[in-house]
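Handout, page 2. Input:
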Amino acid sequence: MKLAIDLRVASRPEWVATVMEDFDSFLQDHANCERKASAMAMSFVAKYPDRTAIIPELIETAIEELEHFEMVYKIMEKRKLPLKHEIDKDPYVADLLQLCRTTREERFMDRLLLASVIECRGAERFKLVKDALQDEELRSFYQMLWTSEAKHGNIFVKMALNYFDETAVYERLDQLIEAEGAILDALELRPALH
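Output:
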């Protein structure tokens, strides 16, 4: 059983350059992404309270993402950067959510698998950011995030395998990864995680 996700499309070098040109805006977006990731994990608990096998891991993931938000916020405080009043809609995530099927069970599977894909894309991008940074403290921080996000991608695949047939999970995951690559390629470059 394979839990790791192999993304089909790599982030463009132009994305990294865009982030480095406006790193403060990237940090503000990153903080919002961590808040949304924590809320997303807890939304699974709220929507699927009967899925008791995964609730402990969902709670742990939500707490970890909230801790990441706190860490990003501390970096922002040092740089005198405010949190944005409004959390902007993430076009990448919005496009991915359009891929979700409509029955309760299919939507549950798709949401878990998309969470995996999003976390793995975040891991890939955190590594790219880490490699591009000169500041050692920030490099160390993004190294830690890279490792953590990769682990979260695996957690969500494992959660799906608690409830769905392995073949069905991997067939659907393959479809979603393929679609994610097309979505990523079509995205406008901006100093944001996605």
